[in-house]
Amino acid sequence: MRYGVSYYPEHKKEEELRHDLELLKQSGINTVRMGEFAWCRMEPEEGKYEFGWLEAVVKELGESGIQTILCTPTACPPAWLVKKYPDILYMDNRRIRRPFGGRRHYCYNNEIYRAYSVKIAEKLGEAFAGNIYVAGVQIDNEPAQEGTGRCCCPVCTEKFHAYLRQEYGSIEAFNKRSGSIFWSQEYDDFDEIPVPVNTIEVGARNQIDAYYENPTVRLQFERFSSGSQKEYQDLQAAALRKYLQVPITTNATGLATNSIDYYDSTEKLDRYAFDFYPGLRDAKVDSFPYAFARGVKDGAPFWVLEFMSGGGHRLGGSGRVQPNPGALKQAVVQSMAHGGEMMLHFQFRTYPFGAEQLNYAIVDMDGVPRRRYREMQETALLLKKLEPLETAAFPREAAVCFDYDSHWALRIKPVNDPAFHYVDYCGRLYNYLENIGVTADVTSLKADWSSYRVVILPAVMVMSPGEQAKVKRFVEAGGTVIATFLTSVKNEDNVGYTESLPAGLTEVFGSVVEEVEPVFDGNHTRLRLCVESYEALCHMEETEDNVTETSDGMWSELLGGVSETLGSYLEDYKEGAKVVSAFTHGKGRAYYVGTDLEPEVYRIFLKGVMKEAGVHRSFVEREAGVELVTRFTEDKEYLFLFNFTARETEVVLPAGFQNYLTGEKLETKCRIARNGMLIAAGRRGR
């Protein structure tokens, strides 16, 4: 595993540079990331390129065993470029140009800016061609972050119209498919269609609050903006590949904080990489982003190019608490356990100046190495011991489907906002699986599902007929699908289906949605999972599994049809109405969950489905806050256990495991220290 930090030699005086480089050499890390915001040093004036200062640092670190991830500097165009071409500046949804003085203040569709970006990428690649100390390249920095993912300038507007022409062919087809007759919005030409005034960008502002726009236009603009970002990065990737034969990527910002569909955008990149800043003080590090990262490129290892390093100030003005001793080490190994191939802390030394001054780092502003630096040294040593486990496989039997069209559609026209958020709900179902001992993947509607026994579809609201057919084929061939409320409600144009829901899938689920409503604090309704069907399903193993009564949450769908009733309402006019169903279709099983269930009951339900489908579960008794990751080799099973409970805890293992790091035989009852971990190895198929 590549392990290290982000570093900014262009900020340093010679004395500071020498001091920092010595600390880096002594740290035990093997990777640094450099160059992402240094365009004005790489090209101080147009056509004059200077890379010697960077080459010298790359060489010195490389000779000490530390390789470099180079970055193209295009997130921060230099002042001379903006002065010469002010039209390259980004225009937000309020039609306000973003001025020079921050970062990401460029239009990614502007051909002039694209040409300059390609040129600096080419020159960077040419300067480091054949350099044995370069391990990879990051393009730009956090594309579309900080409200810069949906430029509305004249260039983008014109390209959006061209995109719509290509998608629909004729304006008549667009009018028909988008339902533009509503509110008298039929068009005579594509150039009459406005770029949306509203936006779902994190941190952006809508100028007109009560302004409701066509959902088709809104969704198509999300797709267009995502594709435009992909075009921009791919131009740089092609320029770099003329000179460099190393992995090329860019750093994403989690699953969905910006406009980019990462399944699509990483197609021509060598890795999926992202930045992750979880709390590390008595807090569980959510592994849902790691499972998603693993699935973006169909199980390929991923990179984390920026990760938490410490506490103190932060860019937004609030602060971060310091990590507990051991928490940095624990989090890095957790990333590796989930398939991480690289983990770089942001940053090595605290900035004394600039917009990010006083930010958290491994080493404080005074350059004195303290406990975080020493823990980084310990972590680097530990990772060397864990190298043999990096090739261990994941079970790949169960997956949660995450879909960008559904995410965008549910932000454009929310359902029970703020109680229901699509991204959070997908993460919750993933974590329920982890709680019951299932190491699950996160996948897309377009991915290959052939290895999975169970696929969960959380509120996949937007489904095309082709995607409906894929679900049907999967179940007919013997797969198990669990769909939740809000499944297959709208088509690929973000227009509601006029057939019974779940559209195109009533035959598969044997259920028809007959009535829907949001669930607020004042209208929760009790329900139960029917004992006769449910006990047979679960083969009740534990006494607490007899809990079958629960309350609905977030959304409620009353189901009709020929499916089996697994859950029904107990009161009010809904009494006796079906809300959870099961149905055999072809060789497989299809479950429909028409509401949100309380966590423990949801976990019980999932246990039964996983057992029926033959999904592997690792049986480790542990309290909430202890995460379990399971990996395999041909003859071994490895259990990675991470204690996030803020205190020492006890776990109960199956018999026959030993401590991977020490080789000692483990008792069934084991203690794990606060912010500690245990890696247990046992014979596969005991």
TrEMBL record:
<dbReference type="GO" id="GO:0004565">
    <property type="term" value="F:beta-galactosidase activity"/>
</dbReference>
<feature type="domain" description="Glycoside hydrolase family 42 N-terminal">
    <location>
        <begin position="7"/>
        <end position="385"/>
    </location>
</feature>
<dbReference type="InterPro" id="IPR017853">
    <property type="entry name" value="GH"/>
</dbReference>
<feature type="binding site">
    <location>
        <position position="156"/>
    </location>
    <ligand>
        <name>Zn(2+)</name>
    </ligand>
</feature>
<dbReference type="InterPro" id="IPR003476">
    <property type="entry name" value="Glyco_hydro_42"/>
</dbReference>
<dbReference type="Pfam" id="PF02449">
    <property type="entry name" value="Glyco_hydro_42"/>
</dbReference>
<dbReference type="InterPro" id="IPR013739">
    <property type="entry name" value="Beta_galactosidase_C"/>
</dbReference>
<comment type="similarity">
    <text>Belongs to the glycosyl hydrolase 42 family.</text>
</comment>
<keyword id="KW-0326">Glycosidase</keyword>
<dbReference type="GO" id="GO:0009341">
    <property type="term" value="C:beta-galactosidase complex"/>
</dbReference>
<dbReference type="GO" id="GO:0006012">
    <property type="term" value="P:galactose metabolic process"/>
</dbReference>
<feature type="domain" description="Beta-galactosidase trimerisation">
    <location>
        <begin position="397"/>
        <end position="615"/>
    </location>
</feature>
<dbReference type="InterPro" id="IPR013738">
    <property type="entry name" value="Beta_galactosidase_Trimer"/>
</dbReference>
<dbReference type="Pfam" id="PF08532">
    <property type="entry name" value="Glyco_hydro_42M"/>
</dbReference>
<keyword id="KW-0479">Metal-binding</keyword>
<dbReference type="Pfam" id="PF08533">
    <property type="entry name" value="Glyco_hydro_42C"/>
</dbReference>
<feature type="active site" description="Nucleophile">
    <location>
        <position position="306"/>
    </location>
</feature>
<dbReference type="InterPro" id="IPR013529">
    <property type="entry name" value="Glyco_hydro_42_N"/>
</dbReference>
<feature type="binding site">
    <location>
        <position position="107"/>
    </location>
    <ligand>
        <name>Zn(2+)</name>
    </ligand>
</feature>
<feature type="active site" description="Proton donor">
    <location>
        <position position="142"/>
    </location>
</feature>
<protein>
    <recommendedName>
        <fullName>Beta-galactosidase</fullName>
        <ecNumber>3.2.1.23</ecNumber>
    </recommendedName>
</protein>
<feature type="binding site">
    <location>
        <position position="153"/>
    </location>
    <ligand>
        <name>Zn(2+)</name>
    </ligand>
</feature>
<feature type="domain" description="Beta-galactosidase C-terminal">
    <location>
        <begin position="625"/>
        <end position="679"/>
    </location>
</feature>
<dbReference type="InterPro" id="IPR029062">
    <property type="entry name" value="Class_I_gatase-like"/>
</dbReference>
<keyword id="KW-0378">Hydrolase</keyword>
<feature type="binding site">
    <location>
        <position position="151"/>
    </location>
    <ligand>
        <name>Zn(2+)</name>
    </ligand>
</feature>
<feature type="binding site">
    <location>
        <position position="141"/>
    </location>
    <ligand>
        <name>substrate</name>
    </ligand>
</feature>
<dbReference type="InterPro" id="IPR013780">
    <property type="entry name" value="Glyco_hydro_b"/>
</dbReference>
<keyword id="KW-0862">Zinc</keyword>
<feature type="binding site">
    <location>
        <position position="103"/>
    </location>
    <ligand>
        <name>substrate</name>
    </ligand>
</feature>
<dbReference type="GO" id="GO:0046872">
    <property type="term" value="F:metal ion binding"/>
</dbReference>
